[in-house]
Design goal:
heterodimer; A: 226 residues; mainly alpha; two-stranded antiparallel sheet; 10 helices; 65% helix; 2% strand; globular; B: 203 residues; two-stranded antiparallel ribbon; 9 helices
Amino acid sequence: MPPQIPPLPLPSELSMPVRDILRGLRKTLNGPPKLADSVEAALPAVLRDIAQGVARFARAGLDPQTPPRPCLDRVAQLHGFDADRATADLFADLAYRGLEFVLARQERPDLMVSETIARIAYDSAMANTTGDAFHRAQDLFQNLRDHHVIGAAPGTPLGLTASDNRIIQIALLALLLWMLVERDATPQPEAEVLALCADVAASIFDQSPGDQKDLAKIFETYAGAI
Amino acid sequence: MSPPIAQAKQPLRKSIRRLRWFKTSFRDQVDRTSDETGVRFDINEQRLTTTFLNWLKAFEAQKPETDADRHAYVGFAAGLMLRELIAHKPLSVQQNPPGADPANPAYFWPEGYVYVAYCLTIRSAVLEQDFNENQREAPELGQIRTWWSFRENALSDPSLGIAFLDLFAGETPDWTMPNLFRGADQRAAALRFYDRKTIQHET
Protein backbone atom coordinates (compact mmCIF):
# COMPACT_ATOMS: atom_id res chain seq x y z
CA MET A 1 0.00 0.00 0.00
CA PRO A 2 1.55 3.32 -1.03
CA PRO A 3 2.28 5.78 1.76
CA GLN A 4 -0.51 8.21 2.37
CA ILE A 5 0.33 11.71 1.22
CA PRO A 6 -0.70 14.35 3.74
CA PRO A 7 -3.27 16.76 2.36
CA LEU A 8 -1.82 19.89 0.83
CA PRO A 9 -2.56 23.08 2.71
CA LEU A 10 -5.22 25.29 1.25
CA PRO A 11 -4.07 28.58 -0.25
CA SER A 12 -5.97 30.42 2.45
CA GLU A 13 -3.89 28.63 5.06
CA LEU A 14 -0.71 29.90 3.44
CA SER A 15 -1.86 33.40 2.92
CA MET A 16 -1.49 34.66 6.50
CA PRO A 17 2.29 34.19 6.80
CA VAL A 18 2.74 35.32 3.21
CA ARG A 19 0.89 38.51 4.08
CA ASP A 20 3.20 38.98 7.06
CA ILE A 21 6.26 38.64 4.80
CA LEU A 22 4.88 41.15 2.33
CA ARG A 23 4.06 43.60 5.11
CA GLY A 24 7.53 43.18 6.62
CA LEU A 25 9.11 43.91 3.26
CA ARG A 26 6.89 46.88 2.74
CA LYS A 27 7.72 48.39 6.13
CA THR A 28 11.42 47.81 5.69
CA LEU A 29 11.74 48.99 2.11
CA ASN A 30 9.32 51.90 2.47
CA GLY A 31 10.72 52.88 5.86
CA PRO A 32 13.63 55.18 6.70
CA PRO A 33 15.89 55.51 3.62
CA LYS A 34 19.03 54.43 5.49
CA LEU A 35 17.48 51.15 6.63
CA ALA A 36 15.90 50.47 3.25
CA ASP A 37 19.20 51.18 1.49
CA SER A 38 21.15 48.82 3.73
CA VAL A 39 18.61 46.02 3.27
CA GLU A 40 18.55 46.50 -0.48
CA ALA A 41 22.33 46.62 -0.64
CA ALA A 42 22.53 43.29 1.16
CA LEU A 43 20.29 41.54 -1.38
CA PRO A 44 21.50 39.99 -4.61
CA ALA A 45 20.36 41.99 -7.65
CA VAL A 46 17.63 39.53 -8.64
CA LEU A 47 16.13 39.49 -5.15
CA ARG A 48 16.45 43.26 -4.90
CA ASP A 49 14.26 43.70 -8.00
CA ILE A 50 11.70 41.27 -6.61
CA ALA A 51 11.71 42.98 -3.20
CA GLN A 52 11.20 46.40 -4.73
CA GLY A 53 8.33 45.12 -6.82
CA VAL A 54 6.76 43.46 -3.80
CA ALA A 55 7.14 46.63 -1.73
CA ARG A 56 5.35 48.66 -4.39
CA PHE A 57 2.61 46.02 -4.61
CA ALA A 58 2.22 45.83 -0.85
CA ARG A 59 2.07 49.61 -0.51
CA ALA A 60 -0.64 49.73 -3.14
CA GLY A 61 -3.10 47.32 -1.65
CA LEU A 62 -2.30 45.45 1.52
CA ASP A 63 -2.48 47.93 4.34
CA PRO A 64 -4.84 50.85 4.32
CA GLN A 65 -4.07 53.28 7.14
CA THR A 66 -7.66 53.16 8.29
CA PRO A 67 -9.14 49.69 8.19
CA PRO A 68 -11.97 49.38 5.66
CA ARG A 69 -15.44 49.77 7.11
CA PRO A 70 -16.86 46.35 6.13
CA CYS A 71 -13.97 44.73 7.97
CA LEU A 72 -14.43 46.84 11.08
CA ASP A 73 -18.14 46.27 11.14
CA ARG A 74 -17.35 42.65 11.84
CA VAL A 75 -15.59 43.49 15.08
CA ALA A 76 -18.87 43.07 16.94
CA GLN A 77 -18.87 39.41 15.93
CA LEU A 78 -15.89 38.92 18.22
CA HIS A 79 -17.83 39.80 21.34
CA GLY A 80 -17.19 36.91 23.65
CA PHE A 81 -14.25 35.57 21.64
CA ASP A 82 -15.76 32.22 20.72
CA ALA A 83 -13.05 29.74 19.95
CA ASP A 84 -14.04 28.48 16.52
CA ARG A 85 -11.89 28.62 13.47
CA ALA A 86 -13.76 31.36 11.63
CA THR A 87 -13.54 33.63 14.65
CA ALA A 88 -9.82 32.92 15.04
CA ASP A 89 -9.11 34.09 11.48
CA LEU A 90 -11.30 37.12 11.97
CA PHE A 91 -9.55 37.89 15.24
CA ALA A 92 -6.12 37.70 13.62
CA ASP A 93 -7.16 39.94 10.74
CA LEU A 94 -8.72 42.56 13.02
CA ALA A 95 -5.84 42.31 15.50
CA TYR A 96 -3.42 43.15 12.71
CA ARG A 97 -5.48 46.09 11.46
CA GLY A 98 -6.35 47.40 14.90
CA LEU A 99 -2.79 47.20 16.21
CA GLU A 100 -1.38 48.91 13.12
CA PHE A 101 -3.90 51.71 13.60
CA VAL A 102 -3.02 52.21 17.27
CA LEU A 103 0.73 52.06 16.62
CA ALA A 104 0.37 54.73 13.94
CA ARG A 105 -1.62 56.85 16.41
CA GLN A 106 1.11 56.38 19.02
CA GLU A 107 3.61 57.51 16.37
CA ARG A 108 5.30 54.12 16.24
CA PRO A 109 4.38 52.75 12.81
CA ASP A 110 7.88 51.29 12.58
CA LEU A 111 6.94 48.47 14.99
CA MET A 112 5.76 45.39 13.12
CA VAL A 113 2.64 43.34 13.74
CA SER A 114 2.28 39.69 12.77
CA GLU A 115 -1.15 38.43 11.80
CA THR A 116 0.17 34.86 11.96
CA ILE A 117 1.36 35.26 15.54
CA ALA A 118 -1.95 36.89 16.48
CA ARG A 119 -3.64 33.73 15.18
CA ILE A 120 -1.27 31.46 17.13
CA ALA A 121 -1.74 33.54 20.30
CA TYR A 122 -5.51 33.34 19.87
CA ASP A 123 -5.44 29.54 19.61
CA SER A 124 -3.14 29.32 22.60
CA ALA A 125 -5.33 31.58 24.72
CA MET A 126 -8.56 29.83 23.78
CA ALA A 127 -7.12 26.40 24.58
CA ASN A 128 -6.61 27.36 28.21
CA THR A 129 -9.08 30.09 29.02
CA THR A 130 -12.12 29.92 31.23
CA GLY A 131 -14.65 32.43 32.37
CA ASP A 132 -16.45 35.28 30.69
CA ALA A 133 -15.46 37.51 27.78
CA PHE A 134 -13.44 39.78 30.08
CA HIS A 135 -11.35 36.90 31.42
CA ARG A 136 -10.84 35.65 27.85
CA ALA A 137 -9.68 39.13 26.92
CA GLN A 138 -7.21 39.03 29.81
CA ASP A 139 -5.86 35.68 28.60
CA LEU A 140 -5.65 37.03 25.05
CA PHE A 141 -3.71 40.06 26.25
CA GLN A 142 -1.19 37.86 28.04
CA ASN A 143 -0.81 35.49 25.09
CA LEU A 144 -0.44 38.27 22.52
CA ARG A 145 2.16 39.94 24.73
CA ASP A 146 4.06 36.73 25.51
CA HIS A 147 4.06 35.60 21.86
CA HIS A 148 5.42 39.04 20.89
CA VAL A 149 2.76 39.75 18.29
CA ILE A 150 4.28 43.24 17.98
CA GLY A 151 7.98 43.91 17.77
CA ALA A 152 11.02 44.89 15.81
CA ALA A 153 11.03 41.19 14.88
CA PRO A 154 7.60 39.76 15.84
CA GLY A 155 7.76 36.45 17.65
CA THR A 156 10.85 37.53 19.56
CA PRO A 157 11.66 40.23 22.14
CA LEU A 158 14.74 41.24 20.13
CA GLY A 159 15.62 44.90 20.05
CA LEU A 160 12.75 46.10 22.23
CA THR A 161 13.31 48.98 24.66
CA ALA A 162 11.28 49.86 27.77
CA SER A 163 9.59 52.56 25.71
CA ASP A 164 8.69 49.99 23.02
CA ASN A 165 7.21 47.69 25.67
CA ARG A 166 5.04 50.53 26.99
CA ILE A 167 3.68 51.23 23.50
CA ILE A 168 3.12 47.52 22.84
CA GLN A 169 1.11 47.01 26.03
CA ILE A 170 -0.96 50.13 25.37
CA ALA A 171 -1.69 48.88 21.84
CA LEU A 172 -2.77 45.44 23.13
CA LEU A 173 -4.99 46.97 25.83
CA ALA A 174 -6.55 49.28 23.23
CA LEU A 175 -7.18 46.42 20.81
CA LEU A 176 -8.99 44.23 23.33
CA LEU A 177 -10.99 47.13 24.75
CA TRP A 178 -12.08 47.99 21.23
CA MET A 179 -13.29 44.44 20.70
CA LEU A 180 -15.28 44.58 23.95
CA VAL A 181 -16.81 48.07 23.76
CA GLU A 182 -20.58 48.11 23.92
CA ARG A 183 -21.88 49.55 20.64
CA ASP A 184 -24.65 52.14 20.58
CA ALA A 185 -27.77 51.78 18.50
CA THR A 186 -26.34 54.66 16.46
CA PRO A 187 -22.92 53.42 15.45
CA GLN A 188 -19.89 55.66 15.58
CA PRO A 189 -17.10 55.18 13.01
CA GLU A 190 -14.92 52.35 14.31
CA ALA A 191 -11.75 54.35 13.75
CA GLU A 192 -13.07 56.89 16.29
CA VAL A 193 -13.96 54.17 18.79
CA LEU A 194 -10.53 52.63 18.40
CA ALA A 195 -8.86 56.03 18.84
CA LEU A 196 -10.80 56.51 22.10
CA CYS A 197 -9.73 53.04 23.23
CA ALA A 198 -6.10 53.95 22.52
CA ASP A 199 -6.40 57.09 24.68
CA VAL A 200 -8.10 55.12 27.47
CA ALA A 201 -5.43 52.40 27.30
CA ALA A 202 -2.64 55.00 27.54
CA SER A 203 -4.29 56.59 30.59
CA ILE A 204 -4.84 53.24 32.32
CA PHE A 205 -1.31 52.05 31.63
CA ASP A 206 0.41 55.29 32.61
CA GLN A 207 -1.51 55.53 35.88
CA SER A 208 -0.70 51.96 36.96
CA PRO A 209 1.95 50.53 34.65
CA GLY A 210 2.55 47.36 36.67
CA ASP A 211 -1.07 46.57 37.45
CA GLN A 212 -1.97 43.74 35.08
CA LYS A 213 -3.13 41.12 37.54
CA ASP A 214 -6.78 41.98 37.23
CA LEU A 215 -7.09 43.05 33.63
CA ALA A 216 -10.48 41.32 33.40
CA LYS A 217 -11.84 43.82 35.92
CA ILE A 218 -10.35 46.70 33.95
CA PHE A 219 -11.91 45.42 30.72
CA GLU A 220 -15.27 45.00 32.41
CA THR A 221 -15.16 48.49 33.95
CA TYR A 222 -14.21 50.35 30.80
CA ALA A 223 -15.95 48.36 28.06
CA GLY A 224 -19.24 49.88 29.16
CA ALA A 225 -17.81 53.36 29.67
CA ILE A 226 -16.32 54.18 26.27
CA MET B 1 -23.51 80.46 31.02
CA SER B 2 -25.91 78.77 28.64
CA PRO B 3 -26.63 75.06 28.33
CA PRO B 4 -25.02 73.32 25.32
CA ILE B 5 -25.77 69.70 26.19
CA ALA B 6 -25.74 67.42 23.16
CA GLN B 7 -28.95 65.49 22.68
CA ALA B 8 -28.72 62.19 24.49
CA LYS B 9 -30.70 59.09 23.60
CA GLN B 10 -30.76 57.80 27.15
CA PRO B 11 -31.07 59.53 30.53
CA LEU B 12 -28.28 62.06 31.03
CA ARG B 13 -27.19 60.44 34.28
CA LYS B 14 -26.32 57.37 32.18
CA SER B 15 -24.96 59.16 29.12
CA ILE B 16 -22.45 61.09 31.16
CA ARG B 17 -20.86 57.80 32.17
CA ARG B 18 -19.81 57.18 28.56
CA LEU B 19 -16.54 58.65 27.36
CA ARG B 20 -17.90 59.27 23.86
CA TRP B 21 -20.77 61.37 25.18
CA PHE B 22 -18.57 63.19 27.68
CA LYS B 23 -16.08 64.25 25.03
CA THR B 24 -18.76 65.38 22.59
CA SER B 25 -20.63 67.40 25.22
CA PHE B 26 -17.41 68.95 26.55
CA ARG B 27 -16.36 70.02 23.05
CA ASP B 28 -19.84 71.51 22.57
CA GLN B 29 -19.34 73.54 25.74
CA VAL B 30 -15.92 74.77 24.60
CA ASP B 31 -17.32 75.81 21.19
CA ARG B 32 -20.25 77.56 22.80
CA THR B 33 -18.05 79.47 25.23
CA SER B 34 -15.65 80.42 22.42
CA ASP B 35 -18.55 81.82 20.41
CA GLU B 36 -19.78 83.80 23.42
CA THR B 37 -16.44 85.17 24.63
CA GLY B 38 -14.13 85.10 21.62
CA VAL B 39 -11.55 83.06 23.58
CA ARG B 40 -10.01 80.21 21.53
CA PHE B 41 -8.95 77.05 23.32
CA ASP B 42 -6.79 74.01 22.63
CA ILE B 43 -8.10 70.68 23.94
CA ASN B 44 -5.64 68.01 25.02
CA GLU B 45 -7.55 64.82 24.15
CA GLN B 46 -5.36 62.53 26.25
CA ARG B 47 -5.83 64.70 29.34
CA LEU B 48 -9.55 64.90 28.67
CA THR B 49 -9.68 61.10 28.61
CA THR B 50 -7.74 60.88 31.88
CA THR B 51 -10.11 63.44 33.42
CA PHE B 52 -13.07 61.26 32.52
CA LEU B 53 -11.51 58.00 33.75
CA ASN B 54 -10.57 59.50 37.11
CA TRP B 55 -14.00 61.06 37.45
CA LEU B 56 -15.69 57.74 36.70
CA LYS B 57 -13.59 55.98 39.31
CA ALA B 58 -14.39 58.62 41.93
CA PHE B 59 -18.06 58.63 40.93
CA GLU B 60 -18.40 54.85 41.32
CA ALA B 61 -16.45 54.81 44.60
CA GLN B 62 -18.93 56.97 46.51
CA LYS B 63 -22.16 56.27 44.62
CA PRO B 64 -24.96 56.09 47.22
CA GLU B 65 -27.05 52.97 47.58
CA THR B 66 -30.30 54.61 48.58
CA ASP B 67 -32.63 56.64 46.36
CA ALA B 68 -32.88 59.26 49.10
CA ASP B 69 -29.31 60.36 48.37
CA ARG B 70 -29.54 60.46 44.57
CA HIS B 71 -30.49 64.13 44.44
CA ALA B 72 -27.58 65.25 46.62
CA TYR B 73 -25.22 63.03 44.65
CA VAL B 74 -25.98 64.85 41.40
CA GLY B 75 -24.40 68.02 42.79
CA PHE B 76 -21.52 66.10 44.35
CA ALA B 77 -20.79 64.23 41.11
CA ALA B 78 -20.72 67.52 39.19
CA GLY B 79 -18.25 68.81 41.79
CA LEU B 80 -16.09 65.72 41.31
CA MET B 81 -16.03 66.47 37.59
CA LEU B 82 -14.88 70.03 38.29
CA ARG B 83 -12.17 68.67 40.59
CA GLU B 84 -10.82 66.36 37.86
CA LEU B 85 -10.98 69.05 35.16
CA ILE B 86 -8.99 71.44 37.36
CA ALA B 87 -6.51 68.70 38.30
CA HIS B 88 -5.85 67.44 34.74
CA LYS B 89 -6.16 70.73 32.83
CA PRO B 90 -7.40 69.49 29.44
CA LEU B 91 -7.84 73.09 28.19
CA SER B 92 -5.35 75.81 27.41
CA VAL B 93 -6.00 79.25 25.99
CA GLN B 94 -4.86 79.59 22.42
CA GLN B 95 -5.95 83.19 21.95
CA ASN B 96 -7.76 85.88 23.93
CA PRO B 97 -9.86 88.44 22.05
CA PRO B 98 -8.47 91.98 21.92
CA GLY B 99 -9.61 94.18 24.79
CA ALA B 100 -10.74 91.29 26.99
CA ASP B 101 -11.72 92.63 30.43
CA PRO B 102 -9.81 90.68 33.13
CA ALA B 103 -12.46 91.66 35.68
CA ASN B 104 -14.89 89.39 33.82
CA PRO B 105 -14.58 85.78 35.10
CA ALA B 106 -14.66 84.50 31.51
CA TYR B 107 -11.38 86.34 30.81
CA PHE B 108 -9.92 86.28 34.32
CA TRP B 109 -9.63 82.46 34.19
CA PRO B 110 -10.97 81.27 30.82
CA GLU B 111 -10.22 77.57 31.37
CA GLY B 112 -11.85 77.60 34.82
CA TYR B 113 -14.82 79.42 33.38
CA VAL B 114 -15.40 76.65 30.82
CA TYR B 115 -14.97 73.95 33.46
CA VAL B 116 -17.51 75.60 35.77
CA ALA B 117 -19.93 76.26 32.90
CA TYR B 118 -19.73 72.62 31.83
CA CYS B 119 -20.25 71.20 35.32
CA LEU B 120 -23.15 73.54 36.08
CA THR B 121 -24.74 72.66 32.76
CA ILE B 122 -24.54 68.93 33.41
CA ARG B 123 -25.77 69.39 36.96
CA SER B 124 -28.68 71.51 35.81
CA ALA B 125 -29.66 69.14 33.00
CA VAL B 126 -29.70 66.06 35.27
CA LEU B 127 -31.63 67.85 38.02
CA GLU B 128 -34.19 69.01 35.51
CA GLN B 129 -34.52 65.62 33.82
CA ASP B 130 -34.58 63.45 36.95
CA PHE B 131 -36.11 65.76 39.54
CA ASN B 132 -37.96 68.35 37.49
CA GLU B 133 -35.97 70.99 39.31
CA ASN B 134 -34.42 74.20 38.03
CA GLN B 135 -30.93 75.01 39.18
CA ARG B 136 -30.28 78.38 40.78
CA GLU B 137 -27.29 80.47 39.86
CA ALA B 138 -25.77 82.24 42.84
CA PRO B 139 -24.61 85.86 42.53
CA GLU B 140 -21.07 84.66 43.40
CA LEU B 141 -20.84 83.19 39.90
CA GLY B 142 -20.39 86.66 38.45
CA GLN B 143 -18.28 88.17 41.25
CA ILE B 144 -14.63 88.59 40.40
CA ARG B 145 -13.59 88.49 44.08
CA THR B 146 -15.03 84.99 44.41
CA TRP B 147 -13.18 83.97 41.25
CA TRP B 148 -9.88 85.24 42.66
CA SER B 149 -10.39 83.00 45.66
CA PHE B 150 -11.65 80.13 43.49
CA ARG B 151 -8.66 80.14 41.17
CA GLU B 152 -6.06 80.50 43.90
CA ASN B 153 -7.56 77.81 46.14
CA ALA B 154 -8.64 75.31 43.50
CA LEU B 155 -5.31 75.38 41.70
CA SER B 156 -3.51 74.50 44.93
CA ASP B 157 -6.18 71.99 46.02
CA PRO B 158 -8.55 70.89 43.21
CA SER B 159 -10.87 69.27 45.80
CA LEU B 160 -12.03 72.74 46.75
CA GLY B 161 -13.59 72.92 43.30
CA ILE B 162 -16.36 70.69 44.70
CA ALA B 163 -17.19 73.25 47.37
CA PHE B 164 -16.95 76.18 44.97
CA LEU B 165 -19.34 74.50 42.54
CA ASP B 166 -21.86 74.18 45.36
CA LEU B 167 -21.39 77.88 46.07
CA PHE B 168 -21.93 78.80 42.40
CA ALA B 169 -25.06 76.63 42.32
CA GLY B 170 -26.52 78.37 45.36
CA GLU B 171 -25.98 75.43 47.73
CA THR B 172 -24.17 75.32 51.06
CA PRO B 173 -20.56 74.27 50.44
CA ASP B 174 -18.64 71.86 52.65
CA TRP B 175 -15.27 73.60 52.93
CA THR B 176 -13.73 71.15 55.42
CA MET B 177 -14.13 67.79 53.66
CA PRO B 178 -15.39 68.55 50.15
CA ASN B 179 -14.11 65.19 48.83
CA LEU B 180 -16.45 63.21 51.03
CA PHE B 181 -20.04 62.63 49.99
CA ARG B 182 -22.43 62.71 52.91
CA GLY B 183 -25.84 61.19 52.41
CA ALA B 184 -28.97 62.34 54.22
CA ASP B 185 -28.30 60.06 57.24
CA GLN B 186 -24.71 61.22 57.62
CA ARG B 187 -25.68 64.86 57.31
CA ALA B 188 -28.37 64.40 59.97
CA ALA B 189 -25.91 62.56 62.25
CA ALA B 190 -23.33 65.31 61.77
CA LEU B 191 -25.92 67.92 62.65
CA ARG B 192 -26.94 66.00 65.80
CA PHE B 193 -23.26 65.73 66.79
CA TYR B 194 -22.65 69.42 66.36
CA ASP B 195 -25.90 70.31 68.15
CA ARG B 196 -24.97 68.12 71.12
CA LYS B 197 -21.46 69.56 71.29
CA THR B 198 -22.88 73.03 71.14
CA ILE B 199 -25.34 72.26 73.93
CA GLN B 200 -22.60 70.67 76.09
CA HIS B 201 -20.37 73.61 75.44
CA GLU B 202 -23.07 76.06 76.41
CA THR B 203 -23.96 74.31 79.70
